[in-house]
User: Fold this.
Amino acid sequence: MSWSFPVSTASLLIAASSLLVACGQSTSQGAPTGAMPAPEVSVITVQAKSQPVDLEYTGQTAGSRETEVRARVAGIISKRLFTEGATVSEGTPLFQIDPANFQTQVASIEAAVAVAEAKANQARRDQARLAPLVAERAISQKEFDDSKSSLESAIATLKQAQAQANEAKLNLSYTRVTAPIGGTTGVATKSDGNLVTASDSLLTTIVQTDPMYVNFSVSEGDFLRMTQQLKSGQLSVPGKRAANGSLGFSVSVKLADGSSYPRSGKLNFASEKVNPQTGSFDVRAEIPNPTGALRPGQFVRVQLSGASRTNTLSVPQRAVIDSPFGKMVFVVNKDNKLEPRPVELDGWTRGDWIVTKGLKDGDRVLVEGFIKAHDPGMTVKPVPYVVAAPAVSSK
Assistant:
């Protein structure tokens, strides 16, 4: 099968061929007149320096002190003396248990104390009367010894009665249930007229919310890596390591709506063993909460800051590419040509990747311009990468 072209089309093909030959000749003699300029790309020159370390975990708030308020004596609740959900001080009356039975017990025991005291006084008088008689041998020594034993028995009976009286008065004082700590009260589990027993004594709870605790878990990998970096000097933490083993990170929290809580705190506990239920280390932070903005049970994002990685390289997130062989970047060499470079990463630092292998101090890394320049060996025109300022919205 043969192809035929019109005369005008054949003429155009001959002319195009002549033009290509001419271009080839001009290329051999110098730069082609129609050559495309090297594409302009943004690069960053990496430098080894101390890089801030920020870590983020999911946590849940809890009161720094949480106490169950229980009745110490059984009885009928005559009145609730507080408002549920209110903030109370230590010692504030919360419930009144009917005191009538306990008042009767106190009166009865006090009467028994009076009888015992009278018998003790009588025994003292008897012994005082017999003392000179035994010296004059007017009575037997046994008679005097019996009077002495009677006095000792009467004194012991008096002390026992006094102890029972103190117990009765203490039980009477327990009929007025007070707050063992200051904090926010919970729901009352018993209402007026309910019976409180030894097996069912819970009346309410009190939670102390200033300061507030934030409980979270640090993965075993993160914990071991930070500990190793701290020992080797790769990780620097301001201040001294706490006595309980926790690191000196500054702690801030983000709420569920994305807003940041305005006060920062500190770590006050780090477990020395892995929690078998979560496979991670339990950690706790303490956050000031004077206004009560944080409530127990909230889920928050815990951010740890204040530490730094020493002598570390980092690149912007957009400079790192996923390839079939792992993470890589494009380096612009001294001849302004692109070189693919596989890298190893180890976490984040303020939005940048920390690079542990693949780059060296002074390398120029491509950040923007991948659409125009993405072929290895391609010549580019590098310009410094400028971080764009965040847009300010007008209202």
